[in-house]
Amino acid sequence: xxxxxxxNAWKEKKRQVHISRTxxxxxxxxxxxxxNRKDESSPNFQWFYDLITSNPLAQAALVIIGAIIGLLRFxxxxxxxxxx
Length: 84
Hints:
Number of helices: 4
Strand content: under 5%
Structural class: mainly alpha
Number of domains: 1
Radius of gyration: 30 Å
Distance between the termini: 74 Å
Helix content: over 70%
Order of helices and strands: HHHH
């Protein structure tokens, strides 16, 4: 029982941790600061979205690029399956 008593005493000691009244506010402030820094460092592609949605030529170019990439992938898979 000596080990059990030591364990119970350790649990009681750990249970008596003092948490300050401003702990939750400090944590939330750190989260807000982290979110603000993350927003500032992330790339902004709004200009690209505006270009694509406002310009029909850019939309056509994007579709053509997608079709070419799709055909290349298809050719690559077909080549792998046929072993050439």
